[in-house]
Specification:
This protein has 403 residues and is α+β, with helices and mostly antiparallel strands. 15% of the residues lie in helices and 30% in strands. It contains 6 helices and 23 strands. The strands form 6 sheets. It has a 7-stranded mixed beta sheet with strand order 12-23-19-13-18-17-14, covered by helices on one side. The protein has a 6-stranded antiparallel beta sheet with strand order 2-7-4-5-6-3, with no helix packed on it.
């Protein structure tokens, strides 16, 4: 019986060589479509974290006595007794306080406080060339200058401005991955598993905390109805969007430098000057247009490092501060219609923000998590933490502009 004749090729084409014999030209470097873009998490890491020892963290906020009051009705220049002021403002002054009308310039001295009605000695500096008593308009603003105690006076009534309790809850995030034993053993381009996947999932895990920092919701339930069905307590950590006191709505119009400066003028009165603007591409595009339209002094595209993070530019305005601008490329994926998250920019005071990982529960890589006896390899990143956002007026949000 004749033998089997082997395949005989007479050409030299690459197709004449067995496909499994040909070495694949594969670059070991894996290109990431969305690189690590977690600037907020990196910055707060660099500023230092404080361990939490409970699943709820608390902090105290305090401020000084408010200094502006306003009368609620029109008054004649001769009216002195029982002049009504806004509800609750009678607690901001006491007898012998000096106040001055910001519209007319008149100075008056408080003589009697009855709830929110003040009796005043009017125009007290007129005899020495100051402003005489003048008619009041409703809602005139008065500056509480200081007290003026008479000689030999008794101990004044002490007043205490109650502190405010801030709080947040810890949130548990888990980022798992699994491979069967054979997949772990074979050779792969770009490196073997599970190390290759561990790198990607580390990036995913960090992005979760970046998202919590901006968009997290503060909540706690004593009995969870979520996945797992264990009916255990479940907390979620609030992000900046939960704590910011004032938001500036562009009302679906283009954002002007004047609008932005007005926002800066308001928020820079509070907290520190160590503020950073985390902005969507739409917001930074609007700012870049100021440079092209002759307002370049407000937009400085000079990249530098701030808190270990590359910033894309600086914006200057009220108070003369240079504020780092960080472009949040991921915000560019969000919708921009109807004030969508793609129009958002967060101006955050970094001196008033702290990461609070629970003690012994900061990010950990847990390996060999597979069930006993199963031919698989399982691992996960796990973290339980939260954020402090103190003094809501030290931060702000800008949103709802168009190109």
């Amino acid at each position: 019986m004749a033998g089997v004749i082997p395949t005989i090729n007479q050409g030299v084409s690459t197709e004449d060589i067995l496909s499994d014999e040909r070495v694949i030209d594969m670059d070991d470097k894996i290109r990431v479509l969305k690189p690590d873009d977690t600037q907020f998490t990196t910055m707060t890491d660099r500023l230092g974290t404080t361990q939490a020892v409970r699943e709820k963290v608390n902090w105290l906020e305090e401020e000084d006595f408010p200094r502006i009051i306003s009368n609620t009705s029109s008054q004649l220049s001769t009216d002195t007794a029982a002049i009504p002021f806004a509800a609750g403002q009678g607690k901001l002054v006491q007898a012998n306080d000096l106040i001055r009308n910001m519209r007319t310039g008149e100075a008056a001295r408080v003589t009697v406080v009855a709830t929110d009605a003040l009796t005043l000695a009017r125009g007290i500096s007129s005899a020495t060339g100051g402003v005489a008593a003048a008619a009041m308009n409703a809602n005139d603003s008065w500056l509480v200058v200081a007290d003026a105690q008479p000689q030999g006076s008794d101990f004044p009534t002490p007043r205490y401005l109650q502190r405010v309790l801030g709080y947040n809850f810890t949130q548990i995030t888990r980022t798992p991955w699994t491979f069967n034993g054979t997949t772990v053993a074979i050779e792969l381009y770009g490196g073997r598993e599970p190390a290759k996947e561990a790198k990607r999932q580390g990036r995913v895990h960090k992005k979760k905390w970046e998202a919590i920092g901006f968009w997290g919701a503060r909540s706690f339930t004593a009995s969870s109805s979520g996945g797992g069905g264990n009916n255990e307590p479940q907390g979620t950590a609030g992000g900046a969007v939960e704590f910011v006191a004032q938001k500036y709505d562009c009302l679906g119009a283009q954002m002007t430098a004047d609008f932005f400066d007005k926002m800066l003028m308001d928020v820079m009165q509070y907290g520190s000057q160590n503020k950073v603007l985390f902005a969507s591409p739409l917001v930074t595009y609007s700012m870049a247009r100021w440079n092209r339209s002759g307002m370049g002094s407000q937009w400085e595209p000079t990249p530098e490092n701030v808190h270990g993070v590359h910033v894309d530019a600086f914006i200057s305005g009220a108070y003369g501060y240079r504020i780092p601008v960080v472009v949040k490329k991921e915000f560019g994926e969000f919708p921009t219609a109807n004030g969508g998250y793609g129009t958002y920019a967060f101006l955050l005071d970094m001196d008033y923000i702290v990461q609070r990982p629970l003690r012994d529960r900061d990010t950990k890589l847990l390996v060999e998590q597979q069930p006993k006896g199963r031919d698989t390899y399982s691992a996960e990143y796990i973290r339980e933490a939260t954020y402090e956002f103190a003094h809501p007026r030290a931060h702000t949000i800008l949103f709802n502009m168009i190109p």
